[in-house]
Amino acid sequence: MKDNLLELVWHELGHCIMCMVTEKSVDEIVFRYNKFTSKEILDHWTGHVSYSPAYNYEYCSKIENIEELSSTILILLSGVAFQGYFKNMIENGNLNLIMIFRGQSTGDKDRDMSDYGSIKKCVESYNKQNDSKLSYYEIENFINLIFERIEKFLHNNFKQICEEVKVKVDSNLNKGSIKTCLVGEDLEGIIKQIKQLIDSDFKDVFLKLKEEIKLKIIDSTPSGV
Length: 225
Known about the structure:
By secondary structure, the protein is α+β, with helices and mostly antiparallel strands. It has eleven helices and three strands, in the order H-E-E-H-H-H-H-H-H-H-H-E-H-H. The chain has a three-stranded antiparallel sheet. Strand 1 (25-37) and strand 2 form a beta hairpin. It starts with a helix and ends in a 6-residue tail after the last helix.
């Protein structure tokens, strides 16, 4: 089957784009081919992006680190927003982004409990530490806002980058490697191409969205920030 690789590439590069918008350093992009045999053979790709400084729940839950929490939320939500854009706009599908986020994401669930689990844990930790009432459901709705803003800025160059990454990962699989780690020169080349797509207008739009997330967090906190 192996038919979700390009969808996964869009997902992971979506994370990468928001890492750059929020001035994080992308350290590694990983793609892994999984083949499970039980009652039936299941072929499936998973992946993840490592970036620094990376989030951790204890740090994000502290009210003085609200900037980090809002950046983390934007980065984690962006994977499904870009994945959904590929499925709905490129492949003419009709998928519900929230439902993809809750259970059908192509991210590496074994590694980080999925983007859904990560954000839920961030929100729960923040609420516990600050006696706040940040609504997880309001936060996940920002997926749709990211999706709406993508269309204005994405163009054929991004699609071409995704295709090039897919070709490289497929080539490695054909050579017997079920795992592709993009680091060093390979990663630098991809990052350089993506950065050329992030002009000041693009960055401003998504930093404003990050501020909207931040305000939603502040509004939920009794003591304010």
